Amino acid sequence: MYGKDFCKIYNELGWNYYSETFGEQLKIWLKNMGVNPVSFLDIGCGTGVLCRIMRDMGLKIKGIDLSKNMIEIAKKNCPGANFVVADMVTYQPEEKVDLVTCTCDALNHLSDISLVDTMIHNVFNYITPGGYFIFDILNGQEGHDETPFELAKDGDRRILLQITKNRQITTLHVYTYEGENLLHEEKVVETFYEPSLISDILLSAGFDNITCNDSLNPTHPGHGTALFFTAQKPL
Question: Where is the Methyltransferase domain (predicted)?
């Protein structure tokens, strides 16, 4: 999953802005909620940007990703953290964790709701009592213009993103150009899940204080294409 070329492009020109923005909003959310975690796990950590932000807050950091190439970059971006190549569905850390995140539509990479169910129940098992699970999912209510648009640019090199939808399936086509020459193409397939179904799974796993909004913080404008869940494990 995710070739070396794509991961390098992702890190240098791509989508780190999302993790950076979410990280700043997460810091505000933690302060506003009076939540002071000691340990942190990022599921689908990618290049380790969110882990680095949480590390700089003094947390004990672990990140997992199915892509070996992403993990290699994450280790360079966030020295001192514990990064592991692992499947989010079956992963079980050795110790319980106070705060778990799963962003950048990572949950939508799971192709079947049964996998989502297993993953959420597993997360509940390894979160400490009183701890939080915070994640995002695709907002299926938002329409998408299927015209490719420029995501990032550096000199003659640029990244175009095209989003296509077919019922419950969203496909992200990522094109990297050098001038007019196509250097690399990557396709990411994601499955849309109804927010009410995700809420039901969270409840069945044992979570409470569940929220779902288009922004992590009310004062921050919504992302548009994402919905943000927060869920707490009872004390």
Answer: 41-131
> What global pTM score does this model have?
0.86
Instruction: Give the structural domain span for 154.
Output: 145-190
Cβ neighbours, 10 Å, residue 92: 8
Which strand (E) or helix (H) includes residue 73? helix 68-77
Q: Give, as one character, the DSSP assignment of residue 219.
A: T
Tokens of 86: 């692992």
Are residue 51 and residue 107 in the same domain, yes or no?
A: yes
Burial of 195 (C-beta count, 10 Å sphere; 0-12/13-18/19+):
middle
Could you tell me if 210 and 231 are in contact, meaning their C-beta atoms sit under 8 angstroms apart? yes
Q: Could you tell me if 58 and 151 lie in one domain? A: no
Tens of pLDDT, residues 87-112: 999 999 999 999 999 998 899 999 99
Residue 225 sits in a domain whose CATH number is: 3.40.50.150
